[in-house]
Amino acid sequence: CSINFLMAQPVDTIGTNLDITIKGLKIQGTLLPAINKEKLVIIIAGSGPTDRNGNSPLGVTCNTYKLLATALQKNNIASFRYDKRGIAASSYNKINEADLSFEDYINDAKEIFNYLKDTLGYKDIYIAGHSEGSLIGMVAAQHTDAKGYISMAGAGRPINLIITEQVAAQSPVVAKQTDSLFSVLKEKGKIDSVPPYLLSIFRTSVQPYMLSWMKYNPAVEIKKLKIPVLILQGTCDIQVKTAESGYLYDADTKATLSVIEGMTHTLKNARADCDDKDMKTYHDPSLPLNEELV
User: Fold this and answer.
1) What is the pLDDT of residues 76-101, one digit of tens each?
2) Residues 11 and 36 sit within 8 Å (Cβ to Cβ)
3) Apex CA 247: angle with CA 245 and CA 251, to 5°?
4) What DSSP designation does 237 have?
5) CA atoms within 13 A on the CB side of 103
């Protein structure tokens, strides 16, 4: 592994771009320093092609992680947020989707932690994962000497149950097919025939990743942590329901649980009665983060 500094920018607003090489692949991210040179939070992005700022080419432009990093800096806490392998500036032609595993993301988080500590000298490092990043960070934290772990809108059950439940909200019939295909994948390690309308979940190239992801149960993994744990969840989250934070807390009652009224999956505020039908919190980068979250 190696690390190089690229394009140093004024640290008050932009930060420093870091290029970290892990097993031949470069992971790029932004270090936003603070006056306190010992305390830092690693921010791990959620699922899909979500970049270091919390945005996605699929139409998400919320700047959630960038806003969080800025808020932390104002509270004298440094942060490092990064593009996951295969995403944005960490994307390379040599990455084959069929070869990607959940463990790759876990290992990347561990290596990033080690460099921030061993090379840059940060002593008090906390790991904060959002959505899918919650589980990535949860497992990575088990293999580091992180000072604490933070789950932001993280699931409390295996991903196959979460996805099946999400599908059920649209079609109970398709949900039964989804559950059946997950059972086949778990038993046989692959699925030979997938309906066209479920290819986004079970296409051949993504099956290995899904198989590696579904074997982790967040409620089991969080029990393995021996460090302070903070669980954050919003009541207006349409992707990860409030009950998921309860599953995590039930598994680790020593943790601190904060269920934040009105907060969406993007860690911003929905309108009254959780009305966010126009998905404004997903598309408006100018909207601020929920203050209680910060």
Assistant:
1) 999 999 999 988 999 776 678 899 99
2) no
3) 115
4) -
5) 5
Which residue(s) pair with 98 in the sheet?
none
User: Edge-to-edge, what's the strand order for the sheet holding 229-234?
Assistant: 2-8, 16-22, 25-32, 78-82, 39-44, 124-130, 148-152, 229-234, 256-260
Give helix then strand counts, H and E, for the chain.
10, 9
Q: Are strands 16-22 and 25-32 parallel, antiparallel or unpaired?
A: antiparallel
In 3D, which of 153, 120, 145 has the Cα closest to residue 50?
Answer: 153
Q: What is the pLDDT of residues 244-290, one digit of tens each?
A: 999 999 999 999 999 999 999 999 999 888 877 668 999 999 999 99
CA distance 294 to 26: 30
**For residue 14, what are the contacts with CB-CB under 8 A and spacing of at least 6?**
30
Question: CA distances (Å), 57 to each of 87, 102, 289, in order?
Answer: 10, 21, 21
